[in-house]
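Incident log, structure service

09:12 report received: a user says their structure output differs between two submissions of the same chain.
09:20 pulled the input from the user's history:
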Amino acid sequence: MLNAHFSSPSVRRRRSAGELMKVCPGVFTDRAAWEAADPWARYDFALRQIGRTRVLAGRAAARVLGLPVWPVPDVIEVAAATRGRAGRVHLKGCPFSLHAFVHTGETITCAGLSLTPPAETILRAAARSPFGSGLGILDAALKNQSSPVSMPGLDELLACEGQLPWRGGRPALKAMLTLATPLSGSIAESLSRAVMYEHGFAMPLLQEPLALRDGTAARPDFLWTDEGIIGEFDGNIKYGRLLAEGQTAEDALIREREREVRLLELGYSMTRWKWDSVVVPSRLVAQLERAGVPRLCSRRPVELTPAQFRERLERPWG
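09:34 re-ran on a clean worker, output below:
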């Protein structure tokens, strides 16, 4: 567990001895515990410490709202009162840098931390994420199942997007807003749709009800009706959601395979993929092509190159 230690003579002595490390100005933690912690635990701990004195924004605020930020950011985004204080700030000796957005309006409180308002938070977080990750944030916000605060609808997000100052990244954000839907079941499904969009595949129907021969209905993750193709993302989290009381993961897997048989009886073909195909898009592209999913165009991906993405992160309004 990561514990905060605040600046004092004893803390300074322990830091000099190498026992403690600096997390942010005036806050330290045990070095051994930090090195043993996973990346998300480090990020969450650091944003909470920084959030003690700053208004959190972007992906940091989205994380507090329970939205699926991915991958782990290397900066913690905060609000700045003036343009002169905006941009990236390197904190000497600290594991995370800050990136500040100009924000002079109202804030909200969530989990004891001050955040920029939900609509601005969601848009900033999406715009500063890779395309698929940003789409996942928007999908989850529209679904609004686990957030401790009320989330904006699509109309409010579109209105806010037109009011915020942007420098770079706006075309990608507009594409995300076009694709965003509350029907996506997980960040993995959002990432999958992003790959389909970026590589010009026909976009599927989501969670479309299909009547099975036994009188029940199934809602596949992805459905290409004209081609008779079903796409399914397989993941441990998904099967965890399928568990009824007293069931094991193995029970859920057997039930899912039985569901697949009933879908195949209707004449559909099915292709399944896992997380490794989502994070390496070329694998999913090849699998969709083998399954016969039509490719409507050779769309140039809206994903920026690493150099372009880093450049945009350095801009005050990026």
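09:41 both user submissions now match this output. Likely a transient worker issue. Closing.
09:42 reviewer note: The chain has two domains: 38-185, 201-291. The longest strand covers residues 75-80.
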